[in-house]
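Suppose you are handed a protein chain with no further information: no name, no annotation, nothing but its sequence. What can you learn? This example shows the usual starting point.
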Amino acid sequence: MIRKNWYGFILLMAIVVVVVAGCSNVGSAATDNRVSTATSPTAEESKEPVPEPEQRVVSTTVAITEMLAALEVDLVGVPTSSKVLPARYDAVTKIGNPMSPDMELVKSLKPTQVLSVTTLEYDLKPVFEAAGMQASFLNLTSVESMNNALKELGDTYNKQVQAQAIIGKFDAKVAEIEHTVANREKPTVLILLGVPGSYLVATEKSYIGDLVRLAGGVNIAEGETVEYLASNTEYLHQSNPDVILRAAHGMPEEVVKMFDKEFQTNDIWKHFKAVQNDRVYDLEEALFGTTGNLYAVDAIDALMGMLYP
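A reasonable first move is to predict its three-dimensional structure. Written in structure tokens, the prediction is:
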């Protein structure tokens, strides 16, 4: 009887050892699996980082080039200009005049983006397309549209901080001017855009017209849908503006001489109130471009002295 019990006890102990050993092995296997899972790199982690595609940007106007320099964007092509371009682009290829860039040269740079302005789109878009290139035309005809263009460029080239700093400066100046002129009488203004040999009337749809509006002036060519109109001195005299602004472009010194001769030899100008009151001003080309530019704040400040002497 005792022997049978002893054999039973030995059998029971053997079963316990086998069960414990089995549990131990299962636990060890589970631990091994956990370690293996934890230390094995996931498919996502094992992928090498994908480099961003190279940006090869060509700017065809001075204003856009200056904006991109402020945003700290590298370029492979910039316009040829008598104006001094940002030093950042001293070694960059010059691609020709903004109104007639060298298409073969631009194409040879293998650009990922070519930038121009909407005021040149009608003339340049078919030329770029004929050369097998697509250009982006930025709207710089007002401070607001320029801010929108800056935001878009900032988003495109991951320069949002730089873009917002510039936009914030413009917004602050506009708010300041609105407060300053809120209770002042708004002067009527005639804006003449001169180029060698002729001149046009700039409407409120033009960039300079927008600056005048922001400064509290009332453009005598208000309500027009185009940026510039042909000049008609009889019509202009009927509007009899408080202020005449003369913007010289192309060859500024030559255009100023043309304006002076026109005002001296055409008798009708002496009947203008602005002429009689000595309120005819020549705008500095560096500040008052035909498209929006980084000097908008300085330009508005200059206008304030002309509109509210």
